[in-house]
Amino acid sequence: MNKMKVLLVDDEEELVSTMAERLSLRGIDADWSTSSEDALRKLERGRYDVAVLDVKIPRISGIELKKQMERKSPHTRFIFLTGHGSEADFKAGSAEAGPEFYLVKPVNIEDLIKKMDELIET
What we know:
This protein is α/β, with parallel strands linked by helices. It has helices spanning 13-25, 36-45, 62-72, 87-97, 109-121, and strands spanning 5-9, 29-33, 50-54, 77-82, 102-104. The chain has a single domain (5-121), classed as Rossmann fold (3-Layer(aba) Sandwich). The two termini are 15 Å apart.
């Protein structure tokens, strides 16, 4: 099987770069971005199996970013993250991705990998 290719999008640079590094150490090809605009540019240049999006990204929200990414890349699957744990964020994220593909930060890397594997298999 080909190596899974993942795009992580979160405005917290330290968090998203560390997550990408930890995924890479586990054999997953992980790119990262700190803005929705940059994520869309990366999508123009490459194909991603899974996009992991923070619900609250400045300017273009994670929910809106998903909609734009789906138009450009219909095969990409999505997981949402939030650090706020608010009910409104949960409802927005779980409505878009399904509650089983919505994780609260700080994310356990093994849980994230498990969710990505589940998405790829469906």
